[in-house]
Structures are given as C-alpha cells and as structure tokens.
Specification:
six-stranded mixed β-sheet; four-stranded antiparallel β-sheet; alpha+beta
C-alpha cells in the first residue's frame, strides 16, 4: 500500500505561511500531479512527502503509517530532481547502481537490477558513458533509472522535464506515463505546466496561494472549473472572463464560433493576431477585458462577428469568484 495522506498540513517559513491547512489523499498506484504557479507551495508539499521539509502543523501518512518522525532514508520514496543530480565522475551504470551500492546489495544482484532497468528505459547501449556524453533526455532517463532500481513505494518528481526542449518534453511525458503503467507504483509529480498536468495526471491538484483550489481528473478540472483562478490557469489558452452585470461570465477561446450563430454574439475590437499553423489566435477587447479566440487561419478578419453557444458559457459569482451552477 502506498497511498499518501495530508491531514491538516500547514507550513510557514518565519512569518510567511506557504501552505494553509491542506487535506489531500493520493490513492495507491495513482499518478497525481500538483500544478500551480511559482510560490504556490507545490514543491514544498512534495518535499514533505520525502521528509526534506518538515510541516509546521498536521500529519503525513504513507500507507497507513504516520511518517512525521521517520527520517527521509526510511520512508521508501525516490526523488527525481529538476537538475537530474547525476554524479559526473560515474558512468550511467554506476549512477543507476549507486542507491543499491550504498545499501550493500551483492554485486551480481546490482548488475541484474541495473540491466533490467536499463532495458526498460532504453539505456542499455549507454551504460559505459559519463553524464557529459549524454543528451538532456538521456540524462533524465538515467535519473529515472536511479530512482526505479530500488523499487520504492512512491516516486516523487519535481519539474523533471523543465530543462528539456519542447519536442523532447512531449516524448518524455509519454515515456513517464508508460513507466507508471509498467511499474504500478504511486507517482507524485510537480509542474507549473498546465499541458503537462492535463495530459499526465490521473488526479490533478491545482494550488494557488498555499491552498488547494480544485482537485479531480483532467476532464473535471478543464470542463468544470470551480473558480475563475482554475478557469484561467488550466488549459493551453486561458478562459476569457468578462464582467457582466452582477457576475463574471467565462468562455474558452476554443469555443468561439465565427458568425452570428448563437445567443451570445459580439464584434471583437481586435488588438493583434497570431498565426499558429492551421489556427489564428485573435487578441481582442470585449467590455474592457482582454480576450482570446481560436479560429481557422484562413478566416478573413474584416467585419468579423463572433459568437459563443449558451452551453459553453460559465457563470461565476462576482464576489467569491466561484462557479455558479
């Protein structure tokens, strides 16, 4: 059992409260993504699971065991850092073998486990190389291998793809997801990238200002945001939010239709336009709000009328900024 539970967790650094009464359960074998902007507390939560940070208040459980007083080395978790943290003087084989070597595992068993993990990660032909001879993606796989080799209860990953270029990030996302399916272990993954969160997580936890704003599946988070923060933060393009009498109304750029076809239609005051392959992203002003619309790249912008279907419009309370159902 490797479920994780945060019970009334708070964390302060001096007078600054980073996390505020967090209650969260991560299921056994679940891939949970903690997502939010810098300073929201997501990496602090991750480090608490590992025991690298100590909470100010509350309890943390791994399985059914409270780990508040258990040292990091005894928590049976593996941490994959943003910086890879490989030993430059060691080969790929030696880097992957390192956690087994310090546990005094027999040489033959170490060799067997390293070869097994290398095969899974496509590193078999690189075992004699040093980190400086590897690409960014290969280094990240070595860091994953070092975590996998001792078969921990929980994998913790802190922005592991942020140093990679855009194309490599996409392929590594799918590799990590396949790895999770193969290992059937609990993964907790931190990112500020909304696309990463939506494509990777079984459960997504959106954090802001030290609070959990919403948690759920990618579909739930995207289609049913609980407040304007989640609505504008999650997604490739932020939801448009416009003040409308006693409420805010929201609609996604992808849901905008060309032509006067629906109940809510308007003539956009266009600021500028981006061409993204087959699509155009129009930046426009509507009732004083900066908005976006995603339309076909071939669409002429002269005398443009746009509309949004009634069932694609969200309503938010003006004071609380929470969704009105």
């Amino acid at each position: 059992m490797a479920k994780i539970k945060f019970e009334n967790i708070s964390k302060s650094f001096g007078d600054k409260e980073i996390l505020k009464n967090i209650n969260l359960e991560i299921g056994d074998k679940e891939f949970c993504v903690l997502v939010g902007a810098s300073g929201c507390g997501k990496s602090t939560l991750l480090r608490m699971i590992a025991g690298l940070e100590v909470q100010t208040d509350g309890n943390i459980y791994i399985g059914d065991e409270c780990v508040n007083d258990i040292s990091p080395k005894d928590r049976d978790v593996a941490f994959v850092f943003q910086s890879y943290a490989l030993y430059p003087h060691l080969t790929v084989f030696e880097n992957i073998a390192f956690p087994l070597k310090i546990r005094k595992i027999k040489k033959e068993e170490i060799k067997q486990k390293v070869l097994e993990v290398s095969e899974i990660l496509g590193l078999s032909d690189l075992l004699n190389r040093k980190p400086k001879e590897l690409s960014g993606g290969q280094r990240q796989r070595v860091a994953l291998g070092r975590a996998i080799v001792r078969k921990p209860k929980v994998f913790l990953m802190d922005e592991p793809l942020s140093n990679l270029d855009a194309k490599l990030r996409v392929s590594m996302r799918s590799e990590i997801k396949k790895l999770h399916e193969k290992l059937q272990t609990t993964f907790v993954y931190v990112t500020h990238d909304q696309t990463e969160a939506l494509t990777m997580g079984d459960k997504i936890v959106v954090l802001e200002g030290g609070n959990i704003q919403q948690q759920g599946s990618a579909d739930e988070i995207f289609k049913n945001p609980e407040n304007t923060f989640v609505a504008t933060f999650m997604g490739n393009l932020p939801m448009n939010i416009i003040e409308n009498d006693n409420e805010f109304i929201g609609f996604r750029p992808e849901d905008v239709i060309v032509g006067k076809q629906e109940e809510f239609n308007f003539i956009p005051k266009i600021d500028f336009c981006e061409i993204l392959g087959a699509d155009k992203i129009i930046h426009f002003d509507l009732n004083g709000a900066k908005c976006l619309a995603k339309i076909n790249a071939e669409q002429n912008l002269d005398n443009l009328i746009l509309s949004v279907s009634k069932d694609k419009i969200y309503h938010f309370d003006k004071e609380t900024k929470k969704i009105i159902h």
